[in-house]
Amino acid sequence: MKxxxxxxxxxxxxxxxxxxxLPLYGASKLxxxxxxIGVLISIHILLMSFSQFLGGRLADLYxxxxxxxxxxxxxxxxxxxxxxxxxxxxxxxxxxFGALGGTLSMPASSAMTVGEGKxxxxxxAMGAFNMSMSIGMSIGPLLGGPIANxxxxxxxxxxxxxxxxxxTGLFVWFTRPQKGLRLS
Length: 184
What we know:
Elements: H1 2-29, H2 34-50, H3 52-61, H4 64-81, H5 88-120, H6 122-151, H7 154-174
Helix pairs in contact: 1-2, 1-4, 1-5, 1-6, 1-7, 2-5, 3-5, 4-5, 4-7, 5-6, 6-7
């Protein structure tokens, strides 16, 4: 559960950085209209939504931990490359790529949470998993605002990607195979 909590927390920080600061970035740096920004975010979310069935199928067939890490690395790359984009079309392609991260990681991490629910109770496991998302969605904008004020809006995306590296590392650490105690 610690690994899943860590992963979901930082994933939500990245999601909230994207949702809150991409409109500001698009408007201030690329001079995108409100409609263009709305289309950009909608395409990203719709692609991720419609591909969740495929992600769930992959989580049933392949190693879930690998899918979470791979999806996380894609999401981190997506966030880190946002400040390097110079047009709406570049952001659209990057957002489509970024949707793949959630497609791979969210169904796999949710399925892992169900597995943990067998140990801790289904409601408790899902409650902790969802709580980590809510905390991350709150922390992202709270930290992103001062970071943007101090170092510029680009730094919010770099911060979110960096925190994601930490969270992915914690996920790998906490979900590593545990060796049993030897009493001989």
